[in-house]
Write a structure and sequence with these properties.
The complex is a heterodimer. By secondary structure, chain A is an alpha/beta fold. Chain A has helices spanning about 1-15, 25-30, 50-65, 80-85, 95, 105-110, 120-140, 150-155, 160-175, 200, and strands spanning about 20, 35, 40-45, 70-75, 100-105, 145, 180-185, 205-215, 215-225, 235-240, 245-250. Chain A is about 40% helix and about 25% strand. The chains are: A alpha/beta, B alpha/beta.
Chain lengths: ~260, ~240
């Protein structure tokens, strides 16, 4: 009986919540239609697993569907990032020109707000969240990526502040109807989904991206670990990065001898 | 002994016919003692035969030039204005930051900032100070008004180390340096270190004796001339500082 009521409630959630279609081949199926709107999702993985590319693809699909999209880059210079995007077929420079896809550098925002320092105070957290909220509001942003949230957390130092930051951020973004991906960097040997351990507990969803060695090949894999507001597959998928974008296929277990 | 004029004849004769070349002089002042005017009078006295640089941390260029003009002093003085630099590079930015923090930020604010981010500026004023002095062609006469600015913004050890560098440079080039600072504001340790570096210390003070304002100039130290330690009185005339025994 318990399981029945659980399924029923999940069914209701599926009907009630509008989905944000990621446009990434395979991912919307895994997520039963997409990410529930307003969710804050952690995209977590070690380096080279395709987090940034997939996040950008998510934004490009949104922007071409008339959903204003924003990429906040914390580490990499946005101009350099754009150059890396040009070869992909899904990328369309007119989206940048007509302002549907906006890329901003977090360090510039830090400077503007007097935050170019090594440790943020609780007041600074309010300022950052407010600033991100302001831009999202101003541009009517529906999809947001922060790459990476781990880098913002470096300046927060304590778990309490990190928790506070992600909670506040999630609340503001979801209040504005924005579906957000927070890129989180972890080391390959990490046993948890985020560097500080607190981010994963607060996020509405976790998409884990990893490397998998099989028969001398290093495969990229993707797994939806958690997603509030929708049923989803929890299987591991192989992620192929092609010139047309990210492709997801089920990881074949049989006969592979992993 | 080669000496250069301080710009105040009576003070010159009470030292060794002026300030010995190579000396760094510290002027201790209290509010209303005319420390800044002393600094300007000292600066102009070297205009004829030395490279004079007046480093200010609290005035605008116009304020300095108009004071020099008012006393009919030479305006052949180079001004290194850290006050303006501080305003433009730090304070104006802080004002701007407070506006963004209060009113919120917009995309254009970030865009406009990205475009001029190549303006890389050095905001370590101690480095700017040392660099400014290192470029001077000797013999020079450098006036720093005042050291308080640096003591307020930097670690005292760093300020003292900078002072040592300036002193050594002044000594080895046979030039002179004058530094002003407020008395009694900092720890004894800071005061003693700075006093130890200075070759000559002159304190400018005011006291009230039976409703009369008495201004005094206390020569507290002159390296190798302890017999020159003493007190002069001073007043202000249309020629600036005028001292009497």
């Amino acid at each position: 009986m318990g399981s029945e009521s659980l399924e029923a409630s999940e069914g209701i959630a599926n009907i009630d919540r509008d989905k944000c279609r990621t446009g990434i081949d395979g991912l919307d199926n895994i997520l039963n239609g997409g990410i529930p709107r307003g969710n804050t999702v952690l995209i977590t993985g070690s380096c080279g697993t395709g987090k940034t590319t997939m996040s950008l693809e998510y934004l490009v699909h949104g922007a071409s569907n008339d959903e204003p999209s924003l990429f906040i880059s914390v580490t990499e210079d946005t101009s350099k990032l754009l150059n890396n995007m040009i070869p992909y077929e899904f990328f369309d420079n007119t989206l940048i020109e007509n302002g549907k896809l906006v890329l901003i550098d977090m360090p510039v925002m830090y400077k503007r707000l007097g935050l170019d320092k090594s440790e943020f105070t609780t007041e600074d957290i309010d300022v950052i969240v407010q600033a991100i909220g302001d831009i999202v509001k101003e541009l009517g942003i529906k999809r947001l990526v922060i790459d990476s949230i781990t880098n913002v957390c470096f300046q927060l130092k304590t778990n309490e502040k990190i928790r506070d930051f992600i909670l506040q951020l999630g609340k503001v973004l979801s209040g504005l109807g924005c579906t957000s991906l927070l890129v989180s960097e972890i080391s390959p040997a990490e046993q948890r989904y985020s560097l500080y351990g607190v981010e994963e507990a607060i996020a509405d969803g976790i998409i884990l991206m990893s490397n998998l060695e099989r028969r001398g090949d290093l495969l990229r894999t993707l797994q939806v670990v958690k997603m509030r507001g929708t049923t989803h597959s929890r299987s591991k998928y192989v992620l192929d990065m092609t010139h047309i974008g990210v492709l997801l296929v089920p990881l074949l277990k049989g006969g592979g001898g992993i | 002994m080669e000496a250069v004029s301080t710009g105040i004849p009576t003070l010159d004769s009470n030292l060794v016919g002026g300030l010995p070349k190579g000396n760094t002089v510290l002027i201790y002042g209290s509010p209303g003692s005319g420390m800044e005017l002393f600094a300007k009078q000292f600066a102009q006295a070297g205009a004829e035969s030395e490279n004079v640089v007046y480093i200010t941390t609290s005035e605008r260029d116009d304020d300095i030039l108009s004071t020099l003009e008012r006393y009919k002093w030479s305006q052949d003085v180079n001004i290194l204005n850290l006050s303006t630099m501080y305003y433009e590079q730090i304070l104006a930015k802080q004002l701007e930051i407070s506006r963004y923090r209060q009113e919120g930020i917009q995309l254009d604010d970030i865009r406009s900032f990205t475009q001029n981010k190549d303006e890389k500026v050095n905001t370590n004023f101690l480095t700017i100070l040392t660099y400014g002095i290192s470029k001077l062609e000797p013999p020079f006469r450098v006036v720093i008004d005042s050291l308080d600015f640096f003591l307020e913004h930097y670690e005292h050890e760093d300020v003292i180390a900078t002072m040592r560098t300036i002193k050594a440079h002044t000594l080895h080039t046979g030039s002179v340096a004058l530094i002003t600072m407020n008395k009694g504001v900092y720890s004894t340790r800071t005061h003693s270190s700075i006093e130890g570096i200075a070759d000559c210390i002159i304190e400018l003070g005011i006291k009230i004796e039976e409703k009369d304002l008495k201004r005094y100039m206390f020569i507290q130290k002159l390296l190798n001339y302890p017999n020159r330690v003493g007190v002069l009185n001073y007043k202000f005339t249309d020629k600036g500082f005028s001292a009497t025994e």
